Amino acid sequence: MKSVRLPAYAKVNLGLSIMGKRADGYHEIETVMHQIQLHDIVQVSLTDGREIVMRCNDSRIPIDGRNLCCRAARAIEGKAGYEIGVDIQLTKNIPVGAGLGGGSSDAAAVLRALNKLLQLQYSRMDLEEMAARLGSDVPFFVGGEPAIASGRGEKLQKVDFNLGGLTVVVVYPGVEISTTWAYSKLNLNLTIKKKKTTLTSYNGKNVKEIDFPGVAPNDFEEAIFPSYPHLLTVKQVLLLSGAVYASLSGSGSVVFGVFDGSVDVGAVKKMLSGQGDVYLTQFVSGGNF
């Protein structure tokens, strides 16, 4: 086998609580992450050389050592203990800088692809350990199962939410929001005083049975909406249109709404067309490893 082609799914955050700042400079968080069907395509091929070469259909994406895909290939190379020749072809469909984890998902796909191509037989835990050194969200995408993420986001606890049959309306307003900037806008003294409730007890329940806004709102909304009021408008439109849940994803800029079969999501998409790129997608669970 010389080549593997994998989907790299986006994710949304069902609630995101910021618990405080850690001694290492990172922030302690708690969030539920769930994949959606919107995805990039990552094709990884072995070559006869010793270089890691990357190509991408989006000219804004760096294709050198700064890219997480290249760093993922280097991580595999370092653990395996020998040089490899790799060609990575990335087809971007997930908006960049949107809070959907596209770059992290792409990197996890490279880890999984090379593990298979090189017949390394690294366990899921092995890959998650490598992934954690690449970025906080990358371990989640190794397995892709719904999980409560804590710590920096690298500590995962599997959950079982029944989200089948629901449609996710994803609205990308065409702006990128820096996570570093978003954290700088937080008032941690107020944020950490909020009631923080674990979501573990909600395993196996339908999303309509869970008070996500009350249990774990996205704390970034208070920091970001004042600077980007149109994102709040999008959230309000989603809720008024019948979404059972609507939220910023991660630190934004995407706002998404979750709808059951009682709402014409096509009409919702049309209503929001002036707010940016609108995607209709669904939840997808696991199948990555």
List keywords for this structure.
single chain; Alpha-Beta Plaits; 6-stranded mixed sheet; alpha+beta; 4-stranded antiparallel sheet
Determine the fraction of residues in helical runs and give it as a percent range.
25-40%
- Uncertain runs: none
What is the level-2 CATH architecture name of the largest domain? 2-Layer Sandwich
Radius of gyration, in angstroms, nearest whole number: 19 Å
CATH topology of the largest domain: Ribosomal Protein S5, domain 2
Write the layout of secondary structure elements.
Elements: E1 3-21, E2 27-47, E3 52-56, H1 68-80, E4 85-91, H2 102-117, H3 124-134, H4 138-143, E5 147-151, E6 155-158, E7 167-172, H5 179-184, H6 188-191, H7 212-215, H8 220-224, H9 229-240, E8 245-248, E9 255-259, H10 265-271, E10 277-282
Parallel strand pairs: 3-4
Antiparallel strand pairs: 1-2, 2-4, 2-5, 5-6, 7-9, 7-10, 8-9
Question: How would you characterize the overall build of this protein?
Answer:
29% of the residues lie in helices and 28% in strands. It has ten helices and ten strands. The protein has 289 residues and is an alpha+beta fold. The two termini are 18 Å apart. The relative contact order is 0.19.
What is this entry, summarized?
The protein has 289 residues and is α+β, with helices and mostly antiparallel strands. Helices cover 29% and strands 28% of the residues.
